[in-house]
Amino acid sequence: MRFTLPTLLVVSLLAVPGAARAQSVDPSGHWEGAITIPGGEIAFQVDLSKNAQGKLVATYSRPENDLRGLPLANVTLDGRAITFDLSVDGGAKFHGIFYADGKTISGDVTAAIGSAPFNLTRTGDAQVTATPRNAPIDKALEGVWHATLALPGRNLRLVLRLSNESDGTASGTIISVDQGGIEFPLGLIQKATSLTLNTPAIGGEFYTGALNAAGELAGTFTQGQATVPLTFVLAK
């Protein structure tokens, strides 16, 4: 999927001094800061926490663009050195170092168009978006669905997974195959044969479709002012 992330970045990896690797820090928290680019700054937020398996995870947000909780990939912590990848819009790699006080991260971000420095300051506890709890869906909607989102200049392959769970709820995720396999948990709203998908990571509701006579989930993908036809086909 295509997300609104204005002029992103690019930068050579910051060399990590041995001392940074030697001293460990707790990165958990809500971090706010900016990427400095020619002519101004790009404000952004990062939330760092550990999941149920004890693995470090992170999300990226730009509230002014209604982008919240976008999962970051390849999150690693080595002493005071941290790295994470933004997998959309061509990708960007963040490589930073925690200050000794553990309240500031400073580093560089690299992408296809260049490089830029960034700084983040811890402002509180991590703001982790809860996994949506959905009412059960019709059995006909369960399964793994595939689609190709046709955008100007590029096509993006999508995988939609829908299932009913043993606790009486339904779950859904969508994977953007061509953007690093980034995966989003979904809110699901079914009305008769129609299904609406939503996630705060891309501004709320982004797809509404319905089962057609061929057994496909046919509808429209919407982001901002753009609306594009999108049809999912159930995997055999």
Brief overview:
With 236 residues, this protein is mainly beta.
Question: In words, what does this structure look like?
Answer:
This protein has 236 residues and is mainly β. The chain folds into two domains: 18-124, Beta Barrel (Lipocalin), CATH 2.40.128.30; 139-234, Lipocalin. Helices cover 2% and strands 58% of the residues. It is built from one helix and 18 strands. It has one helix spanning 18-22; strands at 29-37, 40-50, 56-62, 67-71, 73-78, 81-86, 92-98, 104-111, 114-124, 143-151, 154-164, 170-176, 182-185, 187-191, 194-199, 204-211, 217-223, 226-234. β1 (29-37) and β2 form a beta hairpin. The longest helix is centred in the first third of the chain and has 5 residues, at 18-22. The two termini are 24 Å apart.
